[in-house]
Design brief:
The structure is a single chain. By secondary structure, this protein is of the alpha+beta class. The chain has eleven helices and ten strands. Helix 1 (3-32) runs antiparallel to helix 2. Strands 2-1-5-4-3 form a five-stranded antiparallel β-sheet, with helices on both faces. Strands 7-6-10-9-8 form a five-stranded antiparallel β-sheet.
Length: 373
Amino acid sequence: MNKNYRIPLLLSIMFLSVAAVLYFFDLRIYNSCSTVNYIPYNVWSIVILFFLYAITLFLFWRESKIFKKKEETLQKSLKMATDALNDVQSSLDDAVEKKTFEMSVINGSLNREIAERIQAEAEGLKLRKRLHTILDSAGDGIFGIDLEGKVTFVNLKATELLGWTREELIGTSHHDLVHHTRGNGQDFPVEECPIYMAYKDGQVHFEKNDVFWKKSGDNFMVEYTSTPLLDNGQISGAVVVFKDISRTKRLERQLDLIVNSAGEGIFGLDTNGNVTFMNKAASIMLGWEMKELIGKSHHQLVHHSHADGTKYQESDCPIFMACKDGQVHFKSDDLFWTKDGSSFPVEYTSTPIIEGKALTGAVVVFRDLTTFA
């Protein structure tokens, strides 16, 4: 049964039951009453009950109608809210699906980037290990410094030569540790240091007669090149490559001693015939100081003329020929001229200097024949 009719039916049954009870009691009263014009109480009761019933039904019908309108309004609102909620749910589902897809794409990109970065770091680590291996295999000392002059890296040879460990060198001032004092014991201002200059002026600086100081307090002769380090066109420091030339210097001193102790005159020439070195005997016999002949043409100064005063063509000179044809040339009766314009008979051997496969000059050994006459 429809709920809209259930309540009125129950009210009708209730009013009818009450009316029946009242009618029953009123009949009993009427039967016991002797008055002829008496209107039964139950008639009035039924009239009043039906009047009240009519009012109740009217009020119920009106409230039911209002309630139904409200119910319809609420149902419409509920339907609109449900539709809106469904739209929102649909939009939310679409947004969640879109964001989920975007997150999956981002996550995939992130995973790929992480993998690439891990691979790049692994390759970078492998490259750094290879670089360290190459640096540690080098026969020269190598270290890097930043713009404050502090050591940033150092190879194995450098630690062996300097006596400092990597941990002791890295992060400390190179100049304060190993380049603070000149060979003569005087302080070496950092502003005058060629290594310092490289990362200040951006130029390559080469020094072949300097000293570095060891951890033990001893020094040793070095030859080094300080090259500015560029990062995206900006100077970020310098790289220094150095070698211990102490043994070379000792050999040079021994060679100088041997050469200068020889009784024969000895001098060297480059491929242009210019003097590169000369011993004391040659200086004494020719009357020229070494500094006066170095870099000058030997032929023009001491071998320019024959005994009769005619010009000696350089192309005919056996000494000069050794610088050109790479052959040993010997002459037993020739003439050299001294600084004062006098001459003396000489015997000489001109031997080519060959470095690798390149002809770089000649060494001439001569003696004054008047001494051995």
